Amino acid sequence: MSPTAESSATGSDAAPTVADNYPSTLPQPGHNWQITLDKKVISITGANQGIGLGLAEVCLANSAGAVFSLDISTPGEDFAALSKRYPGRLEYIKTDVTSEESVKAAIDQIAAVKGRYDGMIANAGATKHQPALDFTMEQFEALYKLNVRGSWICATAAARKFIELKTRGSIVFTASMTSYRPNRAAPSAPYGGTKAAVRNMTHTLAMEWAQYGIRVNSISPGFVKTALTYYVETSLDWDTKMKYYGGMPRLALPQELGGAYVYLLSDTATYTTGIDIPIAGIVGAW
After folding, report:
1. The domain spanning residue 150 has which CATH number?
2. What's the whole-model pTM score?
3. Is there a contact between 141 and 194 (Cβ–Cβ < 8 Å)?
4. Residues acting as catalytic residues
5. Which terminus of the chain has fewer Cβ atoms in its 10 Å neighbourhood, N or C?
6. Are 129 and 186 spatial neighbours (Cβ–Cβ below 8 Å)?
7. 240 vs 9: CA distance, rounded Å
8. 22 belongs to a structural domain
9. How far is Cα 76 from Cα 143, in angstroms, rounded to an integer?
10. What is the pLDDT of residues 221-279, one digit of tens each?
């Protein structure tokens, strides 16, 4: 008999609590303490290339049952090559992350096809590096629309699906070290502002959704080697910065971020929520 039914049978007028209707956040007997994504179905926004594709690779290498890229662009050769390495486990759904209808339709499709839905990496974003006074209002608003509105839409859509399925799901945002401090090598006040918003949402949503067994965390990368950041290492003073920093004198590969995402998506992290993990071996050079 459920707690709600038992209360009714005994004549209790006590209202059912959230715990009556949603899974306990406590690990169950026989819980698997391996850091693995075994059988889990994960969506990653913006995973047709760059950081998102690198994260998809690490999730698949850690036994994810299926990874879906939710992206507005068309997959390229790198996506096709990874899909060939993991046949039937990497899929693409054309999605506009700034549209509630588009994101909801994608998540509904995933849950319908796979019969489960376990994790969302809200990764899609854009940047533009230039002096603050050179930004037009259109450029400013475009960054906030994708980076903040898009992250919000994806997180809330995922949370609603987790609640519907009574799944103890995990949401991981991609924030940025620019949410903590300025990027002297490539300044962008609007971009840093968007990522600070994402990091703040992480803490508040984690607090609100813990009652449903949903965990919310974020990762703050430093410079990562992608098509958008190739120019950083070509700057004339790059070697000098690295000489006096004394840290890791290079950009990260996208896959080097993946271990933290896998941990946060895994059932090993059942008591980890509301945190940000910085991964920035060269942050001191900024």
Report:
1. 3.40.50.720
2. 0.85
3. no
4. 176, 191, 195
5. N
6. yes
7. 75
8. no
9. 24
10. 987 877 666 666 666 777 776 666 556 777 789 999 999 999 999 999 999 999 999 99
